Amino acid sequence: MSEKLLQVKNLSTYFYTDEGVVYALDDVSFDLEKGEALGIVGESGSGKSVTALSIIRLVQSPPGRIVSGEVLLQGEDLLKKSAREMRRIRGEKVSMIFQEPMTALNPVFTVGQQIMESILIHQHKSKKEAREQAVEMLRMVGIPAPEKRVDDYPHQMSGGMRQRVMIAIALCCNPQLLICDEPTTALDVTIQAQILELIRDIRERLGTSVILITHDLGVVAQVADRVMIMYAGKAMEYGTVREIFTDPRHPYTAALLRSIPVIENKTERLHVIRGMVPSLSKRPEGCLFHPRCDEACELCRTKRPELVTMADGRQVRCHKYTDEWEGQHNDRQ
Predict the structure, then answer these.
(1) Lowest mean pLDDT among 69-78, 103-112, 129-138, 166-175
(2) Rounded (10°) CA dihedral 79, 7, 199, 153
(3) What totals of helices (H) and strands (E) does the chain contain, helices first?
(4) How far is it, in rounded angstroms, from Cα 227 to Cα 53?
(5) Is the C-alpha dihedral spanning 131, 132, 135, 141 positive or negative?
(6) 147 sits in which H/E element
(7) pLDDT confidence band for 332 (50 / 70 / 90)
(8) Tens digit of pLDDT for each residue in 179-202?
(9) CATH fold group of domain 4-93+175-262+269-325
(10) Positive or negative, the Cα torsion across 277, 195, 90, 106?
(11) Domain map of the chain by residue range?
(12) pTM over 0.85
C-alpha cells in the first residue's frame, strides 16, 4: 500500500488589493505519495505558482493570505506551524527550485557559499565539511570540475549551470519533497532535456517526491506520474499522465492538448484557445471556462461546477459528468 507524503485539502489563497479580492487559489485539493511526481499544468495566471508558495508558506503578506485549507506533510499541518518551525522545514523536508535562477541566486556570494548556507543551518556541520558536501552536490548535479566551480559567482555560469546549482541547493539536505517551479523556462531544448533527466534521476536515486509546475504538457509527459490541470485558481482535472493524454475529459484539458504542435500533422494554423484567462478578481458567473468553451450551455453560464469523481478515480470539474447535464443542449451562439 502506497504512503501519502503530502495531502492538500481545500486550500484557498486570496490577495486583498485596492481593486478587490483576487481569488488566486480557490478550494484546491490533491495528494502526493512518497516517490511520486505530480505535474501541475495551466496557462499563466491559473494559480500554479501560488499553489507551491502556499504549500511552503511563502505567500507575500500583505496582500496575500491563505484563508482556508490544510497542507499535511506526513500528517502534520504546515499551516499551523510557527514561522520558526517553517524555516526548519524549508530546506530540510521541503525544497523549491524557483523559476529564474539568476534572480533566485545571490550575485554577491559564490555558489559554494550559497549551497553551504543551507548545510550549515540544517545539518550543523563544520565549514570544511559543508564545503566538501557542496563540492559533492555540484558533482552530483553534473557540473564539471566542481572543486573549481564551487568558488564561482552566479554570473560566471551559464543558465543551465545556474539551474543545476539551484537543484544542488534544493537537494543538499535530502528533502522528502522537491517543488520545481518552471525549472526549464528560458533554457534551450538541449539543456532543458538535461535538467529533466537530472530531476528524473534524482527522484529514482533518492526517492524524492516531486511537484513539477509548468505550462508545457510535453515536460509533464516526461517526468510526472499524475497531472492536475488548473484554470483560474481551480483544479479542472486530476488523473494519471496516461489518462490525461489519451482520454482528456475536461474541455480545457482537451483544448490544451490540441494546442501542442505535432510534427507529423501538416496544418496551416495551430489550434488556439480563444480569449484569455479571466481576471481572478472579476470572475465570470458559472463555470470559469465557459466563455472560452465550445461545449458550454446555459447550465455552464449560470452554475459553478463541482469536482466530480469518476468511476476510474479521475476527478473532473465539468457539468458534462453530472445528472444535470442530461437534456442540456449546446445553445452557444
Answers:
(1) 166-175
(2) 0
(3) 12, 12
(4) 18
(5) negative
(6) helix 146-149
(7) very low
(8) 998 887 766 778 788 888 888 888
(9) Rossmann fold (3.40.50)
(10) negative
(11) 4-93+175-262+269-325
(12) yes
